[in-house]
Amino acid sequence: EIVLTQSPATLSLSPGERATLSCRASQSVSSYLAWYQQKPGQAPRLLIYDASNRATGIPARFSGSGSGTDFTLTISSLEPEDFAVYYCQQRSNWQGYTFGQGTKLEIK
Amino acid sequence: QITLKESGPTLVKPTQTLTLTCTFSGFSLSTSGVGVGWIRQPPGKALEWLALIYWDDDKRYSPSLKSRLTITKDTSKNQVVLTMTNMDPVDTATYYCAHLSIAARAFDYWGQGTLVTVSS
After folding, report:
1. How far is CA A3 from CA A51, A98, B3, in A?
2. DSSP strand E in B8-101: where?
3. Contact between residue A89 and residue B106 where contact means Cβ atoms under 8 Å apart
4. What is the per-residue pLDDT across A44-76, written as a single tens digit (0 to 9) for each?
5. The pLDDT of residue A19 is above 90
6. Is the per-residue pLDDT at B6 higher than 80?
7. Chain B: residue nearest A57 by CA?
8. Which of B6, B39, B45, B47 is most worth mutating to test chain A (most A CB atoms within 10 A of its CB)?
């Protein structure tokens, strides 16, 4: 089973700062990686798919990069509503889907 | 507009079987390229993918839970059903169903989730 490891577990930043979140896969997932945002009491929201494609309605300050085993979600300038938990997710033909353990982005 | 909603018991006893239903609208599970998945989240913990069913009735399960899970679809009712046997208190979680975009290889629409507590 492919394991996704996210770092850091918690990231403390201020509005206006740049956020860089990492997701590492235990084996190559090609570019089949997605990122989600989850706020308390809400379902996750798809941000990025196929490593670098923004989902419908996602602001341009969110960007994704990477391939193979190392991926990054970047938020160029944090807005107050961006403080949440972020998850990466991979898809494997035969092993299905897995999620990372999440990165909590909190206000400093 | 795509919507999904989970329904089922809020409380189950240990060793019982859980049956959850996902009722959706705005798409058809008979359309090529569509899937519906189940994901759960224990309180305060991370998301865990459970199962997925595709438009062509192909199914995928989490390797660690495969022996306990069954996913089925009723295209005429726009429903997907997940059963999980031998429930344990560690299975206490919010259970979500979600629309899978095959093109995106990701879950682009989610239900609100339903909290299932396992306790005697």
Report:
1. 16, 7, 30
2. 11-12, 18-25, 34-41, 48-54, 59-61, 69-74, 79-84, 93-101
3. yes
4. 999 999 999 999 999 999 999 999 999 999 999
5. yes
6. yes
7. B108
8. B47
